[in-house]
Specification:
The protein is mainly α. 80% of the residues lie in helices and 0% in strands. Helix 3 packs antiparallel against helix 4.
Length: 144
């Protein structure tokens, strides 16, 4: 029997990945520096790969995954658009990405602690996603 924690953790990872991909897509048209663009595209690629892996696992459990919370999406959209309207710079993009990644790492860490009974494969996916987010924060730090 599969632990409900596994499905819950996978759902949260799914929602987080969707949020990350959406956030990167929102800022890519505003990026000036090609190295920063590469960091974002590479991170999006990593998210896409993890999304496929998660979708395969979730579908085995006959689950549809999870969409990001509407409030979180709305607040992200407002913050991104307001900040970019005030300053369309790579610094602004790095700031937005850093905040988003830090929130993702915090949430995923909380879910790892909350869903302790999840299987190791699901926990490893969450840990991998945390590493991807932490790497982007490190990569964009010179643009802050």
């Amino acid at each position: 029997m599969i632990e409900p924690d596994t499905i819950k953790l996978l759902r949260e990872c799914d929602a987080g990945i969707k949020m990350g991909i959406s956030s990167i897509d929102k800022v890519l048209d505003y990026v000036h520096d090609e190295k920063l663009r590469k960091y974002l595209v590479d991170c999006k690629h990593d998210h896409d790969e993890l999304k496929e892996e998660i979708q395969a696992l979730i579908s085995k459990f006959h689950d549809d995954g999870k969409e990001p919370e509407l409030m979180a999406k709305g607040m992200s959209w407002i913050k991104t658009n307001v900040m970019l309207a005030m300053n369309e710079s790579d610094e602004t993009i790095a700031d937005l990405m850093t905040d988003g990644c830090n929130m993702g790492v915090k949430s995923l860490s909380r879910y790892l602690n909350q869903y302790k009974a999840a299987d190791e494969k699901s926990k490893n996916i969450a840990k991998h996603l945390i590493k991807v987010e932490e790497k982007l924060v490190e990569d964009v730090r010179p643009y802050l």
